From TrEMBL, chain A:
The keyword Transferase does not apply. It comes from the Bacteria. It comes from Bradyrhizobium frederickii. This is 1,2-phenylacetyl-CoA epoxidase subunit B. InterPro entries: PaaB (IPR009359), PaaB_sf (IPR038693). The keyword Electron transport does not apply. Pfam families: PaaB. Keywords: Oxidoreductase. Its EC number is 1.14.13.149.
Length: 95, 330
């Protein structure tokens, strides 16, 4: 008999104070409490984290990789959004 | 992103293997781009990786058995704590790898069930027994050493989730090899009996460890496409030679003899080993190694005895969800 499926969770860990939570991987657990405990055991065996978030994978809405051109092209053509686009005379020094 | 749920939302055009898409895919690989779970990929790439990553995961899990055998009998508390931490790491590595395999569209349960049914393989090295404490040192030194040799190039594998899992595994694995070598150093500096025990373990593990790199390049069935797809960066024989060259000086430091009287060093400094007995490899792969039946029986027993825990956790989660929705309705 096939084993019934257990829900999938995405794990995010904040490594040090001041840094954002970062995605580190995923795991299976039947509820949030167990997901948090499993995340502690699987992803922080060497003191990697100060804080853990677990999020049901099914709650994530992702952009479609096939449409990444349409999605991100508008930002690529706007080089004037970067500081290096602008020329400041050398005599002015660091700005 | 590790959500395999997103994969199923893709259209069904994969089976048709559009030539244009396949060429585009190969161009991405050639440009050293990483392939991510929701990207288009040839069905054969998906199948190859599902097989390789899940076998790798099974190996980590089964690999806990030969070493777990010695946790309660470790000679000191320091050794016991280290071995326990190492075996926990192997479990963690198995779980990272299962998560990476799942992004290709198979569920964890399908992967585990395939292993328990004997349909999916795990590394043959774990079908050898750990008879003495020196075996624990030798496993860390040689088995983990060989695994690292294999896994470092996999950190640059074309499939993103696999490469990321391997980076994490490699970081943790270096402690495994060092703790194994430390055990060997201690034994080799010990009494004559202890040194003899270390030599005996090396004698038994040397050839099986060389077989871990897989069949010779001339006969390997998976190498060509895996190389084209940049899943594999070095051939079996290249990695095996690198391993031998790295290991011989370590054995010399210990004052141990590699059980290969025909071994010679060539002009370029490479240590040339004798012919490997591939009939033994085939026998173990076919299920006739010293511990194949034991390992499978132990995995099945653990899975069956854990069934009530999985059921209870699922029932508890369902009850809580039901109660919450009833409260929300009030």
């Amino acid at each position: 008999m096939a084993t019934p499926n257990t829900p999938l969770w995405e794990v995010f860990i904040r490594s040090r104070n001041g840094l954002a939570h970062k995605h580190v991987g995923s795991l299976h657990a039947s509820d949030a409490t167990m997901a948090l405990q499993a995340a502690r055991d699987i992803y922080t065996r060497r003191g990697e984290g100060l804080s853990i978030w677990v999020v049901p994978s099914s709650a994530i809405t992702a952009s479609d990789p096939a449409e990444k051109g349409m999605m991100f092209e508008p930002a690529e053509s706007k080089i004037y959004r970067h500081p290096t686009f602008y020329e400041v005379p050398e005599e002015v020094g660091h700005m | 992103m590790y959500t395999q749920a997103l994969n199923t939302a893709e259209t069904d055009d994969r089976g048709l293997e559009d030539a244009g898409k396949a060429a585009q895919f190969q161009a991405r690989i050639d440009a050293e781009e990483r392939i991510e779970p929701n990207d288009w990929m040839p069905a054969a790439y998906r199948k190859t990786l599902t097989r390789q990553i899940s076998q790798h995961a099974h190996s980590e899990i089964v690999g806990m058995l030969p070493e777990g055998n010695w946790i309660t009998r470790a000679p000191t508390l320091r050794r016991k704590a280290a071995l326990l931490a190492k075996v926990q790491d192997e479990c963690g590595h198995g779980l990272y790898l299962y998560a990476a395999a799942e992004t290709l569209g198979s569920s964890r349960e399908e992967l585990v069930d395939a292993m328990l049914a004997g349909k999916a393989k795990y590394s043959s090295i774990f079908n050898y027994p750990t008879l003495t404490w020196a075996d624990i040192g030798t496993i860390g030194w040689l088995v983990d050493g060989a695994a690292i040799m294999n896994q470092i190039p996999l950190c640059r594998c074309s499939y993103g989730p696999y490469a990321r899992a391997m980076i994490r595994v490699c970081k943790e694995e270096s402690f495994h090899q060092r703790q194994g070598y430390e055990i060997m150093v201690t034994l080799c500096r010990g009494s004559d009996e202890q040194k003899a025990m270390a030599q005996d373990a090396l004698n038994r593990w040397w050839w099986p460890v060389l077989m871990m790199f897989g069949p010779p390049d001339a006969t390997s069935q998976h190498s060509d496409t895996s190389t084209k797809w940049k899943i594999k960066r070095f051939s079996n024989d290249e990695l095996r030679q690198k391993f031998v060259d790295a290991t011989v000086p370590q054995a010399q430091y210990l004052g141990l003899t590699i059980p290969d009287p025909g071994m010679t060093q060539d002009a370029d400094g490479h240590w040339r080993y004798s012919e490997i007995d591939w009939s033994e490899f085939k026998q173990v792969l076919a299920g006739n190694g010293p511990c194949n039946r034991d390992r499978m029986a132990a995995r099945r027993k653990a899975h069956e005895e854990g069934a009530w825990v999985r059921e209870a956790a699922a029932a508890y989660a369902a009850k809580r969800a039901q109660r919450q929705s009833a409260q929300a309705a009030e």
